User: What shape does this take?
Amino acid sequence: IYVTHDQTEAMTMASRIANQEEYIGATPVVAILPWFFAGALFPISALPGALTAFAKVLPLTHAMALMRYGLVDPHGTGLHDIWGMSNPATEAWLSLAVVVLFAAALLALAVRSFTRAAHPRIQEIADVDEIKQPFEHHLRAGTAAGGLNLDARQS
Assistant: This one.
């Protein structure tokens, strides 16, 4: 689910940013900076109040807390830092719901962005097909009469 989130975020950026240099410039802000706030290097409880609130909103914080809970932290310390509840299983389900919702929302955004970005190109292709259609009959008629077969591949 987290991979889906990351990929949709990257696809959305790729469809919105005009050239490669701008994309590379935006990558640290979108891809690297959230790791500092998500508890990758230190617990989010060590952050000042406003940054702790910001970290709790990031889906990466929830994904990392879930991975730690499942792999190395059966007490759910990271989940407790986010939710402040006593039941780590409930906190895990809540964090999973956050990650799933973010992934679904970003997937919908990525599909919408790419559809809009591709729409002019799709229209160009459709226009070319409309121009070709009247001539296809003549090409096919020529091959049926023993003329040049334009569809055959030459070896």
Q: What stands out?
A: The helical segments are 2-16, 20-37, 49-57, 59-71, 77-83, 88-144.
